[in-house]
Amino acid sequence: MVKPSVSRWLVYALVDPSTDQVRYIGQSSSGLRRPKHHFCPYSAKAQGHLYLYRWIAKVKLSGAAPGIRVLEEIGSAAELDSREAFWVAHGRALGWKLTNATDGGGGRRGFNLSEETRARIRTKALGRKASPEAVANMSAARTGTKYSAEHCANISAALTGRTFSVEHREKLRVARTGYKFGPEFSAHLSAAKKGTVISAETRAKISAANTGRKFGPEFCAKMRAIALSRVVSAATRAKMAVSHTGHKHSAESLAKMSVACKGVPLSAEHRLRLIASHSGRPLSAEHRAKISAAHKGRKLSAEHCAKIGARSKGHTCSAETRAKLSVIAKARTYSAATRAKMSATGLKRQALIRGGV
After folding, report:
1. pLDDT tens-digit series, residues 157-168
2. Does domain 1-124 have CATH number 3.40.1440.10?
């Protein structure tokens, strides 16, 4: 017999009519309406996978219905969670065969699926495709969700060592194409990857994946802006120098670099760095021949010649350099036009010297 209720807040039990044993403990903030709700057909159909509703269906098949028993009436809603958790723990201690999946008290605390159940859920979910509406709803529900450090660690541990199929990788790539991360998330990613050491195998995979890949102008502009604002340490510069030593660019790559560098003004600091890096650097005969071929027929502007002249003033060449220049000059054959220009330049220089005296 159902106990008369004088409060809207209560802890109730569903009882097996054949054995009079308590099989489920729940809480209600609407009196007896909540426990009666378990017997509604649509409720049982919506949650038919739960142990509780399978038990209710079994009782109904026998021609009976579970009984409702009020275990405790509560004075306020604030006490419902703690009292439900108390009764669930009390019932389990007494050996009641409860169908509760959790420890009570709201939420899913204490809910654990068996390995067998997990395997069934996984098998059923394989190959299932969510509708665009369902995907949008899931995305909206998770937007702004912040996971705890423990949760993130569990996800990381579960994904470590996991290998994705080629088909799965392609789906991920298509899904992320054009996706833009917010500034906060980008900052988190940057902080997480700082100091990460990439193995040689991973580097080889990244290199193979990017070989022949063409980036759009917008992406290239962003990468250039990031690179210009980045401060590279001396140790990193040394590593980059070692990795680039012996590297040969294709003709297409050299042409692109040439076009990109044309008209770009170099700062005074950048020029000093270039001079310092090239000082004392020995050039191979092949390299010299390439430089010579590149400069043949090249006409320098008056402004450029003036700059070269200004830099050369006061510059003293060593005896060794003078000897090398002399050998080069003797072996060089000048055209009649070049000789005429050199003669005119020499006469002008002598006139300036005499005028100065």
Report:
1. 888 888 888 888
2. yes
